[in-house]
Structures are given as structure tokens and as C-alpha cells.
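Journal club side-thread
Mid-discussion, someone asked how the predicted structure for our own chain would compare to the paper's figures. Pasting it here so we can look after the session.
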Amino acid sequence: MIIGFLKEGTTDIAPIVPKNQSKLKAICEEIWIESGIAKGAFYADDTFAEAAIKSRADIISTADVIVQITPDITDEEYGQAKASAIFICQYAPFNDENIVKGLSANGVNAFSLDMIPRTSLAQSMDVLSSMASVAGYKAVLSALTMLPRYAPMMITAAGSIKPSKVLVIGAGVAGLQAIATARRNGAVVEAFDTRAAVREEVQSLGAKFVEVEGAKDDKDAGGYAVEQSDEYKQRQAALIQEKSKAADIVITTAQLRGRPAPKLVTEDTVNNMKPGSVIVDLAASTGGNCALSQNDKVIQHNGVTIIGDSNLPNKMPQDASTLYSNNILNFLKHIVKEGSIDLNSDDEILSKSLISKKA
């Protein structure tokens, strides 16, 4: 079996890092990589001593398994691949139903890494959680960079400075990492989530858990938020505005899978926040949790800085690559049995992530 790794131009995160070469060799005969595969993560080609540097065309036409971060493979290139070839990347079919139709029309065997079930068994393969953890950490650092004051309490000869207040909206993987990072930097942290089950996790990190009673919770939502009633949304909006007015930093992380992100921070809320406050919106690419967020932009509104960035892991490409590569390695170790992949397996991880199969 030949496993090939392709680079693509939208990210500096790499699907393979040098330390995983020997582990991959335990499940395949050859590793092929495209030149510059990990340049953005500061790994030169010569650090991949156990891999063969091949052209993109050679990898697509010859490899048995082809791995990428996000897909940029054309229909023509799919047609050049072996009939039995298997493609692995983040296809994000929930965001575009035509993706699966297109793959099926081309007779492509494809696994989507973002469809791996978010269960304990699959935790080591969960690229969404890995990248969310990086995003939560970087969100706090980005906010602190823009904040015109200290995060921790400071006692100096010139006087005392009160600690900054941070509000984290959404206590999933990104939110929990944001809480932990803000606390390590000395801030006072509050966290809001519709899921009462995360209360203990929030409190264990030293934050105060705030909630609105009566939220709907879906344990099968895969860590995503679920749509709430209009009455709940009204009470939620009032609470978020109250807490945001007192906060120096607001970090929003709520996503609805396959749907626009819920609007949790209204323009009125922003107008009532303290000048110099910072909002980091991790849901900016799907419409944003803040009504004023602009994806991939930093804007100022009424003295408040709003950072719309859903791709913060790309700003930490080396560690993000290490985690992503580990996820892919663990996924391959799970699905490759005796040098092949059984596409008819009823294994939950394999069957949930297999989004297209050649007829």
C-alpha cells in the first residue's frame, strides 16, 4: 500500500509531520509526499527521510490512499486516480450537500475526517476537537494582544490593577481551552453554554458557569449547539448582554452543524460594551455569533475590537500539524487492516466517515 500526502494552498497545516513517518511505515509499504508538504509548519522536505518526494500527478495516479487537509482535487484529477484509490480529507459535507453528489458521480471512495463520530473511541482521530483546542488557546492570545490592559491583577508601587473579565460563550473543546488559557493568564472567567452537563468541566477550570434554564440539549449533536426556542433565545440574549457589558473580552465558539452560526452577540450588545473591549468570534466563517463579525477581518465598532477568525489553528501551524497528523495516523491505524481497507465494514468510525463509495 502506498499512502500519498498532498499539499494545498489554503492552509499552513500539514497532514503529516516527520515524527510520524516510522509509525505510518508500520501500516503501509511506502509514503509519498508532495514537495513542500509541511513548509508552512517549518518542516523542510529533507526532514522526511522515510518518505519519497513525488509530484502531485504521480501521487494522484499511483497512491492507494491519498490524504489532504481540505480538498482541492479536480474532477479531472479524480479521473486519473486508480479505481480503488481512497481519498481522505475534510470534505465538510454538512456545509454543501453537492459535495457527496459530486464524489459519487465521479465514483470516488472518500472518507471525510469531519464526519468521524465524536465518541470516546474515536477521540484520538477527532480533527475537529484537535483544531478547536488550538483555536480556543489562540483566541485568548489574540484577544490579549488587542486588549489595552493587563489580564491578571497587578499590584505595583504605582497602584493596583484589577484583573480583566473574560466571557466565553460555548463550553465545547474550544471554549474549555479558552477558559483554561484565560485563567492561566490571570483573568476572571465566566462561561455560558446551553448544555448544563458541562457545568462541572467549566468549574473545574476555575470559571463561573452561567446558564439560562430550560435549554434543549441533544447528546447526538456531536458537540455542536442545537436550535433553541424563541422564548429561550430572548432570555439568553438578555443574559449575554448583561455579562458582555461587564466583560473585557468575549470569546464566542457556538456552531450549528450545517447551518449558520447562532447570533448571540447583537449589535446592541456590542454598543453597550466597554470601549477597549475585544470580541473573538470563532464562528465567523459560518455567519458569526456576533452580528457585526466579518470573516477573516478585524474591525472596530464603537470602541470595541471584533476579531472574526474561524481559522486560528493556521496561526499555530507547527503544533496544529502535529495534532492533525496524529489524528490521521490514528484513523489510518484503525481502518487499515492487513494492508487494506474494507469499505464494507460495519465499524462505526469507518461507516460514519465514509461519505462516498465507488459502486
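Post-session note: The CA atoms of residues 137 and 267 lie 26 Å apart.
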